[in-house]
Amino acid sequence: MLNFSKHQTAKRSMIRLVVAMSVVTATLATVAQAADKKPAGDKAPKINFIDHVLPILRQKCGSCHNTDKKTADLDLTSYIGTMQGGGSGPVIEPGAASESYLFELITHQAEPKMPPDSEKMPAEMLAVIEKWIDGGALETAGSKAMAPKKPKFDFSLKGAPTGKPEGPPPMPGRLNLEPVVHTERTTAVTALATSPWAPLVAVSGQQQVLLYHSQTLAFLGTLPFPEGVPHVLKFSSTGDLLLAAGGRGGASGRVVVWNIKTGERVIEVGDELDAVLAADISADQTMVALGGPARVVRIYSTADGSLLHELKKHTDWIYSIAFSPDGVLLATGDRNGGMFVWEGYTAREYASLRGHSAAITGLSWRSDSNILASSSEDGGIRLWEMENGGNVKTWSAHGGGAAAVEFTRDGRLVSCGRDRTAKLWDQAGKQLLAFPSFPDIALRITHCDETNHVIAGDWSGAIHVWNAADGKPVGDLTMNPATLAERLTMAEQQLAAQQAELKKQTDANTAAQAAATKATADVAVAKKAVADTQAQHNQAVEAAKAAKAAVDAATAEHQTVAKTMATLEPLVPLLKESATKAQEAAAKNPEDKELAAAVAQLAEQMTKNSAALVAATKALPEKAAVLEKSKQALVAADKQVVDTKAAFDAAGKQLATVEPLLKPAVDKAAATQQAVNAVTAQVATSQAAVARWQNEIEFTKKLTVLAEVKANHAQLAGVAAEAAAELKSSEEQLAQANTGVATAEANVQAANTTVQQTKDAIAAATAQEATTTTTIATLDATVASLNETAAKAAQAVEKSGGDADVAAIAAQVKVVVDKKNADLAAAKKSLEETKAALAKAKTDLVAAEKNAVAMVAALEAAKKVVVDQNAAVQVAKDKFAAAKQAADAAEQLVEKTQDEVKGHPQLAGKA
Questions:
Q1: Nearest of 383, 376, 443 to residue 407 by alpha carbon
Q2: Which residues of 630-648 are buried (b: 16+ CB within 10 A; e: fewer)?
Q3: How far is CA 862 from the centre of its chain?
């Protein structure tokens, strides 16, 4: 007998083999078809939202996060909804999957895990979403990668500052003095703010914020605010940051924060559908709160711009927001008079402050955070303590309504309102000063603690600065500064006018100097003439005196000689006669010695007098001549006295004429010189102004170039980043292609194995068919013989009359016959199954051989994909290298331009 149990086991093994081969064949055929469908060398499309991510999100997240059912305000069935995010803020950070909130949730790295109460998405789906975000969160295959929206810097502080920061106060570096917008007329002053630690004031303008020095009132620079009109300006607690909030009414609203030292934007939060009307930055600089017509206070993180909290308790437009100086509390006020205080970090309601009957227009904290001041359209100012939220002081501040209030560092308050007046108060509500009225409603006010100046602005755009110590005006600021070109034109016109005036004054001064020189010379000549004629007259008088003395002396001598002659002329003849007679007598008396002595004496006297008479006779004409000459000299001297006296008198008269002209001429020369000096100084100032504005225009041009090269660098950096992403994708595709080759090689080996296994199965099935056919033939003969035996046994039983032994034998024979019949039927059935399996195996062999051929083709195709992808990788490398080179060159140009901007000389002057 044959063992049919072994036959059945063999048959089941064959069936399982055939089925397994069928499954393998089908699988490989599917792979081959997939390979056939993908053109060799084609680049895989960029992973994008529409083609790759949306199907996953619809399948896994769409039931809860769709247009109709926005769980957590998040719609993941559209690109816009996904990128916009939900109640917790943006959920996608383009270029950084690891920093994207959605990816953290679906990878179960953060709570709540998504999908809820389910396992993570399959790794393949997560990989697709990760590559999509890292690739820039493309919407379609043709989209460009989005730039990350995170802030450039993290300015958060470790706790709220408790005093003045160390180091110099934060003041702006060199900024652009070119206004973004200049209009013919000014409009309402919508925002003012002063730095807590520096002499710096910020003024709102049209699409710009203007910075001024609060001591000198010099214009320091412009911060562009293209978002629209700034309705709020706030300095951070350290003074390093300046917040501006505003936008375009009914269109958009945003909050921007600048680094005050560099003028660079460092934080941007909010994407309102209306202008932001209230905002503030926390003391530790980790949060920004904003509000407006949406009646919702939104609190954002400055670290990543994510939305932290939404406060929806206000029933009307939010007008005022203020963080406490210690960062613990946040106060908010609305148009309906509603005012709330919230816990700064948890956003839980802390107190509801009821008291004002009209809009809350201003909120300001005392420096110790224990007292909150509020102003309202009801005209009042209220002070609130924070332990119980009680109103500790109220006073009527401005008739018609108070528009703003602010605490000073020392605890005083400044306010302004519809009465067009800015005022200074103490905390008891006592008015310390009321400053001169504005031409229109006073809207905004601030106090500079560093200079003790009060700055306020009104509806017409006027901005006045006063000294808070005595209320005296310091000067004015403008929210609408002239353009640099206009400033240069005005400076050039002023310079031309001053240069013309300088020429006029110089000509006048030249004439005046010449006149003064002439007058000085005339006086000097006249004085010299007076001195000279005075000396000459004095000499003439002395000469006349000398001549008179000479005449007198000559007259006396002449008279003496004449007198002598008059005496001697009659005496000498007498003496001669006497001497003759005496001599005659002596001759007669020679012995008379006395007579002889008398004759000798008489002769001697006669001789002497005769000689004297001769001498006098001779001298008299000489003395007469001397006398005459002396008299002539005296006449000449007298005439000289008269002449010199006339000359002296004429010189004095000339001096009296020219001397009074000297001082006016000198004074006029000095005055014209002063005028020349003054105009010269003005010309120098104007020349410096012209040079300065020309310099600032050149600086602005360099800033414009810098902005252009920065934008170009950003674009090229984006291209480089995209090229890097493409290179990474190409390399990943190459890795996949290499894996595909390995898979295809395994598939070829598996297909060949399947062919061989199928052939072996056919051989086994063929042998099994022959064996089963032989078995059936044997069983057919056996059954026929047994049937005859059974028939004869039955006849024997009948003939034996039912003999028990015979009947037992007959029954035994029947059992054997039945069993053989069953074996025969089973063998025949097995034969049919073997034939069917053999037929199927032959069919499978054809399929397996075809599949083997397909697998070989798929292997060749996969190898070609590797070749093509290698080429694609090289192209991507070349593209990335070129893009990086261009980006690097652009970056170097940015650095060079930055150096030029930094090195551009700055000329001094007050704007």
A1: 383
A2: bbebbeebbebbeebbebb
A3: 54
pLDDT along the chain (911 residues), means of 10: 36 34 34 38 71 91 85 86 78 85 89 86 92 88 64 54 81 93 94 97 97 96 96 96 96 96 93 96 95 96 91 97 96 97 94 96 96 97 95 96 97 98 97 97 98 98 97 97 94 94 95 93 92 91 88 86 81 76 76 78 79 80 84 86 90 90 93 95 93 92 90 90 88 89 91 89 87 87 82 79 78 82 84 83 85 90 91 91 92 89 76 60
User: CA nearest 261: which of 318, 200, 315, 306?
Assistant: 200
Q: pLDDT tens across 464-480, in order?
A: 999 999 999 999 999 99
Whether the full predicted model's pTM is greater than 0.85, yes or no, is: no
Put residue 178 in one of left, alpha, beta given phi > 0 → left and psi -120 to 50 → alpha: beta
**In this structure, what token pair is assigned to residue 161?**
């500052």
If one counts every other C-beta atom within 10 angstroms of the C-beta of residue 213, the result is: 18
Q: How far is CA 776 from CA 16, 201, 769, 779, in A?
A: 24, 112, 10, 5
What's the token pair of residue 848? Answer: 């397996």
User: Among all chains, which residue has been given the structure tokens 């409603």?
Assistant: 441
Distance CA 694, CA 484 (A): 8
Residue carrying structure tokens 């932290």: 308
Handedness of CA 637, 639, 641, 647 (dihedral sign): negative
Place of tokens 């001298």: 619
Q: 290-321: per-residue pLDDT in tens?
A: 999 999 999 999 988 899 999 999 999 999 99
Helix, strand or coil, per DSSP, at residue 176:
coil
394 with 380: CB under 8 angstroms? yes
> Please, what sign has the CA dihedral across residues 664, 666, 671, 676?
positive
How many CA atoms within 13 Å lie on the side-chain side of 852?
A: 16
Distance CA(643)–CA(98), nearest Å, equals 121
Lookup result for tokens 């934080």: 267
Length of the chain: 911
Find all residues with CB under 8 Å of 677, minimum gap 6, and list them. none
| Token pair recorded at residue 635 | 């006449």
> How far apart, in whole angstroms, are the C-alpha atoms of residue 893 and residue 533?
87
Q: Are 29 and 854 in contact (CB under 8 A)?
A: yes
Structure tokens at 649: 């008198």
* Tens digits of residue pLDDT in 109-158: 888 888 888 888 999 999 999 999 988 888 888 777 665 554 445 555 65
What is the C-alpha to C-alpha distance for residues 713 and 811, in angstroms, rounded to an integer? 105
Distance CA 252, CA 255 (A): 11
Question: What DSSP letter does each residue of 425-491 carry, written as one string?
Answer: E-TTS-EEEEPPPPSS-EEEEEEETTTTEEEEEETTS-EEEEETTT--EEEEE-SSPPPHHHHHHHH
Q: Amino acid letter at 434?
A: A
How many Cβ atoms from other residues are within 10 Å of residue 850's Cβ? 15
Q: What tokens appear for 127 in the block?
A: 């990989």
Q: pLDDT at position 404, please?
A: 98
Q: Which two tokens stand for residue 249?
A: 């009414």
Distance of CA 213 to CAs 127, 190, 424, Å?
55, 19, 22
CA distance 289 to 280: 6
Give CA–CA dist 329/331, Å, rounded. Answer: 7
Spatial contact of 790 and 64, defined as CB atoms under 8 Å apart? no
3-state class of 319 per DSSP? strand
Name all domains of the chain by residue range, CATH numbers in brackets. Answer: 49-134 (no CATH), 192-481 (2.130.10.10), 488-678 (1.10.287.620), 707-903 (1.10.287.950)
The DSSP H or E segment spanning 679 is: helix 593-799
